[in-house]
Amino acid sequence: MPQSKEEKKLKKLLTWVMVLALGISSLFAYQPTLTEASAIRVLIDRQPMVLEVAPIIRAGRVLVPFRALFEAFGVSVNWVEATNTVTGQRGDTTISLVIGRNVAVVRGQNVNLDVAPLILNGRTLVPLRFVAENLGADVTWDESTQTVNVIRQVSLRRVRIEGDAQSHKLSRFANQDAFISPAELKMLMDRGERDVVVIGVLNPTSALLPLNAARSPIEGSFSVWRPDYSGTDSPLAVSPTVSGMTRSRQVVEDLLSRAGATPASMIVVYAADAHHDAARFMWQIRHLGHRDVRYLDGGLNAWQAARFPTGRFARLAEQPLLTAYQSPNYNVAVNNADLAMVVHALYNPREWVVIDTRSAAEYAGRSTASSRGAFGTGRLIGSVHIEWVNANAADLTLKSRDELAAIFRDTIQGRRAIVLCQSGVRSAHTYMVLAEVLGHENVFNYDGSWIEWSFVASEVSVGQVPTALRQQVQALTELWADNRGEIK
């Protein structure tokens, strides 16, 4: 039966209503609800960002509350109600955004936005990537976990004190931001400077006596000792028998997590008396890609000499996890030499120099108290002897840059350098002097040092290392006396 004109009009109208309804439902299907948005995670330097309002997605961009975002970057915030404008300023960088407007002003220049800021539940939300990248951060999106990863560019804090002799000395070092004086550290602590972590590398049986005023750690610092970060379980050792080498990445990350550190933290390391242990721990933290790690010049001795507060401290291994530190860029090879590199260096003296930083007695092949852990006595053929303590002044602070340059000038002569000692601790101090004070490139600390080298040369290593490697190491060793076991 043919349809009337009225029925045709009604059918056509119903069809358009259905199309419109489907279109609207499709449109809303692409807009995340608050429940969906709550699944979005934001990590800043791999730490979860705490937000009062959950992130949302608009036009493919994640938006977050502006105040929490700006404050995470140390940006001062200003809100103008009359114009619905939020402005953040850090140094010479100013970012202004207006609610509902797709144009921002960055450093005085108009910049187009993919999505405009908006107000949700009384909170102003701004595009995360736009703000973070204009503040120098790297931003990535993990679709599988719905996670935004923001890695902040670390801005090193310059803490020199005008008119202070020690500050002036440190200011002349090639990488002055790798060093801090007791007065500078005290100034930061008095100001309540955020994100400053102080760790003492202190022997609990000799250098860590809290009831003895002369042996009390820096007030409020943490403490670690060698077994906490180096030992016989190193993934880098030629054999599990070799002791004293770098423990795993996770072990060091765990220690820093217990100290409450993040990749943006200023980590200050210090020791007592010899101070090479602070340099060693600093060297291992560098493996993580952590930029702001500083050596306290003069260590606990200089701190106490200045009559700064000591006493309350915490052993890191006994602390709960305060953060979930993850290395920004883990790379052991950045400053570490393995045995193969040392062999190559000894065969190429025009390009390389190998510096033995042990005592004169050890270099002469004699057994000393420092020989414990090795498998014999001797030295590497072609190595140059410069004892590590030559870098320290009488008060155990570092010598001036000019004095240190004079010590090494004739030895380096433009060559790449590998430094070694008994277990890579004393030589880490020399590494620090060459790389951070004098600015030499291509300097490496041999982690295994004499303990690993003597193990390979010893008959103890038979069956544990390739015969050809053992013969090669023996051929490059002089004044050798095999202990046929570990020196106790």
Determine the N-to-C terminus distance: 109 Å
CATH architecture assignment of the largest domain: 3-Layer(aba) Sandwich
Helicity range = 25-40%
**What is the CATH topology descriptor of the largest domain?**
Oxidized Rhodanese, domain 1
Got a strand count?
28
Mean pLDDT: 89
Overall body shape: elongated
Strand order of the biggest β-sheet: 14-20-19-15-16-21
Radius of gyration: 30 Å
CATH class of the largest domain: Alpha Beta
Number of helical regions: 15
Largest sheet: 6 strands, parallel
Strand content: 15-25%
State the domain count: 4
Given as residue ranges, the uncertain stretches (5+ residues, pLDDT < 50) are 16-37
Task: Give me the secondary-structure category.
Answer: alpha/beta
Write the CATH homologous superfamily of the largest domain.
Answer: Rhodanese-like domain
List keywords for this structure.
6-stranded parallel β-sheet, 4 domains, alpha/beta, 28 strands, Copper Amine Oxidase, Chain A, domain 1, elongated, 488 residues, Oxidized Rhodanese, domain 1, single chain, 5-stranded antiparallel β-sheet
Note down, in words, how this protein is organized:
29% of the residues lie in helices and 23% in strands. The protein is of the alpha/beta class and 488 residues long. It folds into four domains: 1-30; 40-151, Copper Amine Oxidase, Chain A, domain 1; 165-330, Oxidized Rhodanese, domain 1 (3-Layer(aba) Sandwich), CATH 3.40.250.10; 336-482, Oxidized Rhodanese, domain 1. The strands form seven sheets. The chain has a six-stranded parallel β-sheet with strand order 14-20-19-15-16-21. A five-stranded antiparallel β-sheet has the order 5-6-7-8-9, covered by helices on one side. It has a five-stranded parallel β-sheet with strand order 22-27-26-23-25. The protein is elongated, with a radius of gyration of 30 Å. The chain starts with a helix and ends in a 6-residue tail after the last strand.
